[in-house]
Amino acid sequence: MDIRMIVRLLAKRRQLRAQEHWTRQHLESYQAQALHRVRDYAYAHSSFYKRFHQGLYDAPLQDLPVLTKGTLMDHFDDLVTDRAIHLRDAQAYMSAQQADGRFLDRYRVLATSGASGHPGVFIVNGAEWATMLAAGFRFFEWGGIKLMPTHRVKMAVVASTSPYHASAQRGGTFQRLLMPQMQLASSEKIPTIVERLNAWQPELLIGYASMIRILADEQLAGHLHVAPRTVLSSSEVLTQETRRRAVSAWGEVLFNGYSSTEGAVAAECDAHRGMHLMENLAIVEVVDKDNHPVPSGTYGDKILITTLFKFTQPLIRYEMSDSVCLSPNPCPCGRPFRLVEDIQGRVEDILSFVGEAGETVPIRPLVFHRIMDTLPVSGWQVVQEADGLLVLLSGVCGTLDDAMVAGKVHETLAKQGVAISVEVRRVTSIPQGPGGKTPLIKSKR
Q1: Which of 85-89, 271-275, 323-327, 351-355 has the lowest mean pLDDT?
Q2: First to last CA, the chain
Q3: What is the set of domains in the chain, with CATH numbers?
């Protein structure tokens, strides 16, 4: 057991708990000070940021240029603040499958799946990793799971088992420190997952939203027999229908979370009014396609995050293509953090069609959610192909008229000025993307 990591983790958890009782004014003052520290460190140790922010060292955050994943990866060696870190070495380390060790004896290497088209590599030191773990612990605690060294909670995670995915590395650390864990690949056959969960009987069940929906259906059908104290959904859009099924299966124990390898974190508390942005760890800007802020209650085209605890690989106004809507109202729980009212997916999930007059017509994911979530199916996916729209359905329960589904989708798009053919196809399971995720909306164009 890593005693040093446990000490770091418990200290960081105490700090994060205390910050939950701050006023909004105190939080914003802390953000300003933490941002100043991150920027000063980046300008002193990163040749990339010296160039990227040249002439803007004292400029407000909103005046700084936006950092894309492509730019980060193209300038990786110059952006990191330790000159011993090189991208080629990190990639060689990952190729050697050395996830249980430490890169350069002191760093963890994390990788994104590249679902948006650009895989990313991220480096964190021990203190930064402890902060990421403490944020995960806060997600657990807000969901009713109290973690103590003297009380080990049985956990099951159904997600990616890639050794460099953040969820797999977090799970491995939790297991070594405090929590006996079963980690299951979301790509595994459902009967196998059900059998292993029945044998394990987890107190805490964590999974992608698509997997939570499938497991809820298995529980309601009498195949799965587990009684978790808490169910945590993350990494995919949690629709209202998925939430309803999970509550029907296990009661009011479902909590939604939003986390990324890059550093954006939000979690739902027991008030169930949305997800609190953990703004003591990152500044999150919800912006339109031109990087202008959008008001609360409006979906942005993307978010820009500035991490306040990462110094090895600083992320300042880092672009993520998640379409997020912030709530205009505070949470009755009293925490100072803003609420994420809804996430409808990535900007890549917004499909573009040619309208009747030749104009481009964007169709947002919610248009499809409202139709597909009413269907008696365990999974669905809308795929835009070169010559039409393909609707995949899995786990159809009872009778369902595929022609009716196609007609409803066609009619809805026609009201938006889009005339396109729609095919409905039943499949055994919805195809998974990188990292084992199952996107609801997908484009092959």
Answers
A1: 351-355
A2: 49
A3: 3-347 (3.40.50.12780), 350-443 (3.30.300)
